[in-house]
Amino acid sequence: MIESIVLWVLAILTAPFFSALILKVKAFFGGKKGPPLLINYYTLSKLFKKGSVYSRSTTFIFKMGPMVSLGVVITGLMFLPIAGHAPIFSFQGDVIFVLYLLGLGRFFTIAAAMDTASPFEGMGAAREAFFPIICEASMFMILILFYSLTDELQLSTYFSGNNPLELWKTAGSPLIFIVLAFFIILLTENSRVPVDDPATHLELTMIHEVMVLDHSGPDLALIELGSFCKLFFYSAFIARLIFPFNMENLYLSGGVFVGGLILVYAATGIMESVIARYRMDKVPQFVLTSFALALFAIVITLEFVK
Amino acid sequence: MDLYFLSEILIVFGGFAALFLSKQFSMMRGGAVLLICTGCLLGLYSSVTMLFGETVLASFKYLNVFSLSFKVDGLSAFFLIVIFLVSALGTLYSYHYLSDSKKAFRIAVNYLFFSLLIASMALVVTANNMITFMFCWEIMSLSSFFLVIYNYEEEANRKAGYLYFVFSHVGAMFILASFGLIYSYTGNFTFTLNGEIPDTTKILIFVLSFIGFGSKAGVFPFHIWLPHAHPAAPSHISAVMSGVMIKTGIYGILRMYTILDLHTPVLGNMVLVFGMISGILGVVYALGQHDLKRLLAYHSVENIGIILIGIGIGMTGVAYNNPTMAMLGFAGGLLHVLNHALFKSLLFMGAGMVLHKTGTRSIDMLGGLLKNMKVTGTTFLIGSLAISGLPPFNGFVSEFFVYLGGFNGISMDRTPFALSLLAIISLAVIGGLALACFTKVVGVVFQGEPRSQAAENVNENGATMLIPMGILAVLCAVIGVFPEIFIRLSIKGVSAMGLGYSQLSLEPFIEMTGNITRYTVLFIAVFLVIFAIRTLLYRGKKITQSGTWGCGFTQPTVKMQYTGSSYAASILAFFKPFAPLRENHPAIQGRLPAKTHYHSHIDDIAELHLDKITRPITFLFDKLHWIQHGDIHLYIGYILLTIILLLFFV
Questions:
Q1: Residues 6+ apart with CB under 8 A from B200
Q2: Distance CA A295, CA A87 (A)
Q3: Most buried in the list A193, B274, B304, B549, measured by CB within 10 Å?
Q4: Which of B490, B510, B380 is nearest to B446 (CA)?
Q5: Domain locations along chain B
Q6: Does the pLDDT at position B194 exceed 80?
């Protein structure tokens, strides 16, 4: 239990560090030196020290947005097995609970954006409301596969201990599809290229970044921390799937887990460096790919179960 | 049971009292509200006691021919609780809502039919034979018809009323047909079968009654009346009709399923498929609406879909001998009946307040209402979170149960597997779309800046309108965090369905609700900690106010805000085959372009194709028009002729 809590705290604390890896990889591809690896901590502490400017159009929802979006991810991380270790809490159906909590976070992010009366933020909000619908459908498709393999609806049975390895043994080839599908979900849910470009200069083409344009100071810091943690949350899934090994020693398995995480973040960085953002009307097709992959994975397992 | 009938009498008495007091306006309103509310609360109390007590029976002879017989079992008592609770709050709301003293007589008539509607809904769910059922069902349909045409001066409202009238009566014909089929085998009007009906006929009976009840409940494609009738009716009527009255259709389906006692997979599959279609298309059409109340009406179609998915999963569980799945599905579906009644009436009351104060239902004309309408805005936000199925509110609890039921079906093979898979995916898609739709409503109506004069400088008042909204919002949160007692209520309802699950251990279900309580409290605690940290971080900081950052543009106007139509456009484009879009937008031309406008309308495919059915029927009746010519002598001749013919044949 204490180890789980320590791991949970560590996950929140190190999430900004891992996100900086993406920046480093992108800088490498651009032939630049890039910002230091601790850049995000610097940004956060800078923001925490500042005051805020609020738009006259906003209401209390605007202030609730950052708190809820951080709160749901932090709560979600409590159910996530980190480095293969059992999570702090776990119950039958916790996956659905966590997914719906993330939905609550999305509701408030969108509502906070709509609060500003800005046309740009409305535009971002409309996109944020659309793409995750498809993500959610493919997420549940993946859940169905996991449920049919394990008969459980808990994150801990999918990702802790030797369980991922067992999954590979029973259904190896579908899991390859699942890893890809997860990766697409990760890119979409965390507003990365090719769905959204967090580094673009034009507000018209943004999704997530434009929604937080009016937030400033500690509020913005909470949002940033929340999105680092959210990226960590999704990356941890994939990291456990690509490196399913479980070591006896917690430090060793922690090392393997970090290795997996670095790989996922690096892959995200490479993605962002080598391809451009899709046109907005092409994005649904890209996201639907993950749904199709998950569906195929289920179809494959059906055949060798029978 | 005596208490229950007393409450019925009190409610109807309240309605008639209003009619006689219509000269004294405030006394009439006050008296009617007081009497009907007291009646409802009395009914609520008696139904709670009946839910935990034994099944009770009562019967009266009517004209010495038909016996009117009533029975309250767990299922009836569950629906009675929903009916009385929401009706009481709706009545309270009406006190300040119907405040136009120029329409005193009309308001009195409204109270009369409203009281009849409440009383008949309660009688419908307790009716114990076919005659009683149809009798109460007709009173319910007719009284709600008169409530829909409250503002009969407007042509759209008369049309809506007519559409509702036709639909409820065609629906009643289907129900009558199914009762007739049962009667042709059993020879009596009771609701008990002794196994003399063959299974294929039972399926036919179920299908007929499903169409009939489905048209009341608003199941796609029998929902067409719903988006017309709800905007036409006064808001407290919409709240009661959408929150409660359409649930009598669900009750009918469940009751018919109990009566037939047929556990083949076909029924479950059918209900499940209709549930999924209603759920997804309901919310897609809701997204495309510009009228706030019409949007909410389409959400009723969606939520009826979710309820049917739950019931369908339950029936599938029964058919494949999977009691856990059956219990999860039925309990989730029934709990969603209660939950939907709460948050939908809350949302309609909120919409009513908006309509009352701004005079418009058009979403794109509103904006920024939260600043001046704190209670309405906050409770509407809570209702929106609840209807989107998000924790820590009640919509999540029932959807969680239905999800778990669906996942139980994943362990089976072939048809139940495929249907469970589809059910889970549809629930996920419905959840996402509902979230999109309600961020649109909250974002465009209550947030941002007012888009027209109507939305500027509004205020909210009328304690009796605000209090029911507050109560409903609190109930949504309480069920969301402490669902145990409410799951127990719905399990009581399920066990009355005679499925033989009374021995089923309640422990796993109570454990689930315990988990929901524990972890929603955990989330709230995390949120409070973050709130505390944020407060600390802002201590002594400089906080300034300014305009919204316009990305470099310095002269923004409120017209530049994203509208509801543009917000929903990309999602609707994705569902284009099911939601054809009609646009009216003259192109901008020339160097000095003239003013232009944009109008869009999403067509309901059921409504589009309805024409294909109605056209041949109206053609046929046009041809028979000569029979009806207005000459009374010939009409008497018809009657004579019929009697003579009957003498020969019977």
A1: none
A2: 28
A3: B304
A4: B380
A5: 605-649
A6: no
Is B403's CB within 8 Å of A96's CB? yes
Q: What letter represents residue B47's amino acid?
A: S
For residue B368, the SS3 value is: coil
* Mean pLDDT of all residues belonging to chain B: 91
For residue A140, give the nearest of B368, B425, B543 by CB distance: B425
Which residues of chain A have a CB within 8 Å of the CB of B573?
A: 281
Residue scoring higher pLDDT (B195 or A55): A55
Q: Which of B389, B547, B561 comes nearest A100 by C-beta?
A: B389
pLDDT tens-digit series, residues A63-75? 999 999 999 999 9
B534 at interface of A, judged by CB pairs closer than 8 A: yes
CA dihedral for B469, B566, B223, B277, sign (positive or negative)? negative
Count chain A–chain B contacts defined by CB atoms under 8 A.
231
Inter-residue contact B560 to B449 (CB < 8 Å): no
A111: nearest CB among B443, B547, B570: B443
Q: Which helix (H) or strand (E) holds B242?
A: none
- Give per-residue pLDDT as tens, A78-123: 999 998 888 999 999 999 999 999 999 999 999 999 999 888 899 9
CA–CA distance, B394 with B389 (Å, rounded to integer)? 7
CA distance B326 to B332: 10
Task: Kindly determine whether residue A71 and residue B568, on different chains, have CB atoms separated by under 8 Å.
Answer: no
Pick from B375, B524, B562 the residue to mutate for testing the A interface (most A CBs within 10 Å): B562
Higher pLDDT, B530 or B496: B530
Task: Choose among B513, B333, B477, B518: nearest CA to B393.
Answer: B477
Average pLDDT for B471-492? 94
Least confident piece of the model among A115-124, A262-271, B104-113, B496-505: B496-505
The token pair that represents B441 in the structure block: 């409503």
B91: pLDDT confidence band, cut at 50, 70 and 90?
Answer: very high
Rounded distance between C-alpha atoms, residue B535 and residue B391, angstroms? 24
Does residue B273 have a pLDDT over 90?
yes
Helix extents (H) in B451-506: 463-481, 484-495
Query: At which residue do the structure tokens 């090994």 appear?
Result: A245
Q: What b/e string do you get for A45-66 counting C-beta neighbours within 10 Å, with b at 16 or more?
A: eebeebebbbbebbbebbbbbb
- Confirm or reject contact between B543 and chain A (CB < 8 A): yes
Query: Contact B562/A119, CB-based, under 8 Å?
Result: yes
**Measured between alpha carbons, how far is B441 from B231 in angstroms, rounded to an integer?**
16
Closest chain B residue to the Cα of A298, Cα to Cα: B421
Q: Write out the H or E segment, with its range, that includes residue B150.
A: none
3-state secondary structure of B543: strand
Separation of CA A216 from chain center: 23
pLDDT bin (cut points 50, 70, 90) of residue B454 is: confident
What value does the mean pLDDT take over residues B107-118?
A: 95
- Enter the tokens of residue B618: 């109206």
Q: The dihedral of CA A295, A296, A301, A304: what is its sign?
A: positive
Closest CA to A282 of A222, A170, A182, A205: A205
Phi, psi dihedrals of residue B67, rounded to the nearest 5°? -95, 130
pLDDT at B376: 95
pLDDT band, very low/low/confident/very high, at B559 (cuts 50, 70, 90): confident
Nearest chain B CA: its distance from A207 CA (Å): 13
Question: Inter-chain contact B442–A144, Cβ cutoff 8 Å?
Answer: no
* Amino acid A58: pLDDT: 92
473-512 of B, contacting A, C-beta below 8 A: 512
CA distance A274 to chain B (A): 27
Q: For residue B115, give the amino acid letter.
A: S
Q: What is the CA radius of gyration of chain B?
A: 26
pTM: 0.95
Does B581 reach chain A within 8 Å, measured CB to CB?
no
User: And the tokens for B165?
Assistant: 């009238």
